Amino acid sequence: MGKKSSKKKSKDKGSQKATQKPSTTPFSDALRVGEGFRLSDVDTRATPAFVGDKVAGEEALAAADAEMDDLQERLFAHGRSGGTEKLLLVIQGLDTSGKGGIMRHVVGSVDPQGTEITAFKAPTKEELAHPFLWRIRKALPGPGMIGVFDRSHYEDVLIVRVHDLVEPAVWGRRYSTINEFEQGLVEDDTTVIKVMMHISKDEQGERLAERLDNPEKFWKYNPGDVDERMHWDDYMEAYQAIMDKTSTKSAPWFVVPADRKWYARLAVQQLLREHLRALDLQWPEADFDVEAEKKRLAETR
Amino acid sequence: MGKKSSKKKSKDKGSQKATQKPSTTPFSDALRVGEGFRLSDVDTRATPAFVGDKVAGEEALAAADAEMDDLQERLFAHGRSGGTEKLLLVIQGLDTSGKGGIMRHVVGSVDPQGTEITAFKAPTKEELAHPFLWRIRKALPGPGMIGVFDRSHYEDVLIVRVHDLVEPAVWGRRYSTINEFEQGLVEDDTTVIKVMMHISKDEQGERLAERLDNPEKFWKYNPGDVDERMHWDDYMEAYQAIMDKTSTKSAPWFVVPADRKWYARLAVQQLLREHLRALDLQWPEADFDVEAEKKRLAETR
């Protein structure tokens, strides 16, 4: 039921640089990764599909809350009534790119009963003893749910590739495995939204420095973050390969410029909104006799 | 670390009827179930520990958001830094008592990365093949987390008792099993907050009728709700037994009058706030050399 909105509009391929579009352009079109896309061409301070400043952006985010509630509840209601639709939001990005802010301010603004966040950390011994998609499959959303991955199976072609944690021939096969896996999700009525939170190296430097300047943020700092930062170019190359190989028609990538936190939050919210709207879900009909139930209820009062 | 605030203040035992206390009375004291407590004495429209109307109550709820964020983040930070504290909020109540509203408006107002909601439905075949606490143990919060149970192990002495799903000798033993189980949680640095959302039979009748009057709410209606409603007195008796047998010093019950949704939400939020405050958690210190890290970071810019 309901077509996925992830169909590529051919003229928007590689349109990341057109940042001053009127706000009537769907975020999905402005941010979708098409053929010829180059990560290095993206201005990480741009605000594609939105004209306005931080104040306007924060207002737009808040203004969409009511519709987000409604859309999420319709999805949830369908899941309770035999519907099979579900949504998977994959959030990828380097340290400090704002993944946590998306969880807090975008995912956190809808009913927590209808969302499931899974944060994928370094794999456990048990997880390493299984195929890389094993732990991913266990965390997939059920009918009516919005599943959110904070990092994902893409780490298996990111940190794993950058640090040679497995042989190149092994990670090299994973791109097509991932495409087949995601194709299966889409065929199982999952709307898949894959988001890369894209920050500049300068912006990451500033955000890490803030954590070291504020004792209330020490707990968020990990010396390993600087170690990873030293591999910046390798990570960019690994992300480019992901965009080249896994932005498919049924499960495309969206690259969100993330130097401005307010914009990145608005963009992810709007991607969710556009995809949920496209499902066009109506309230389920009663699967019981309404008048008979009214009578039964009246007899208990 | 941090004493639990659940210590009983003896003069407040059974104080549910004192609804016009000044707002300086902690909600924990006003709502805690002590010796001699009678469920039938509770006015389900009362607003213990709060003086004010709906507008004031909604304002008070919103006004506490920032402190709730801070308290939750401190708990989470401790969990990430070797701290063992965690919190378990158990929400019980008959159909339409507002459990979902608590999840949406109270739990949903803090960072979803630090909360885990588990909704316990009728047990599966696999769950039934295990001791009744098996599925409960699997859902317990880890360090730094706020676990929330929407229904819980108490269903095993509620619906199970009302419908004779097991022998009386079996459910009869469960009260002491539950007390031992919860004592173990407290010894494991879990703050346990058990809340009964207490509505009147009339209020339930109105809320069920609303669901039958509004096609957008049909999906929330289940003919089985009316079947359960016919056992109202049996449920009240089963809840009274729970209050008599399982409101312990280390894991007391709080009965929240729930005919006014705004009050029930405020009360649960304030119970959480008071218990989190009592933990008195400070920001974790750095487990790395701050100056050395600043230098390392500067070298990568």
Which overall shape of chain A is indicated by the principal axes computed on the Cα atoms?
A: globular
Count of separate DSSP helical elements of chain A = 13
Structural class of chain A: alpha/beta
- Count up the domains of chain A: 1
CATH architecture of chain A: 3-Layer(aba) Sandwich
Strand order of the largest sheet of chain A: 2-3-1-4-5
Q: What is the first-to-last residue Cα distance of chain A? A: 40 Å
Residues in β-strands, percent of chain A: 5-15%
| Mean pLDDT reading of chain A | 93
What does the model show?
The structure is a homodimer of 301-residue chains. The first copy, chain A, is an alpha/beta fold. Chain A has a single domain (27-76, 83-279), classed as Rossmann fold (3-Layer(aba) Sandwich), CATH 3.40.50.300. The first copy, chain A, has 13 helices and five strands. Chain A has helices spanning 27-31, 54-63, 65-80, 99-105, 125-128, 134-138, 159-162, 168-187, 201-213, 223-229, 232-246, 261-279, 290-298; strands at residues 86-93, 115-119, 146-150, 190-198, 253-257. In chain A, strands 2-3-1-4-5 form a five-stranded parallel sheet, sandwiched between helices.
What features would you highlight for this structure?
homodimer; 301 residues; alpha/beta; Rossmann fold; 13 helices; 5 strands; 45% helix; globular; disordered N terminus
Can you describe this structure in just a few lines?
The structure is a homodimer of 301-residue chains. By secondary structure, chain A is α/β, with parallel strands linked by helices.
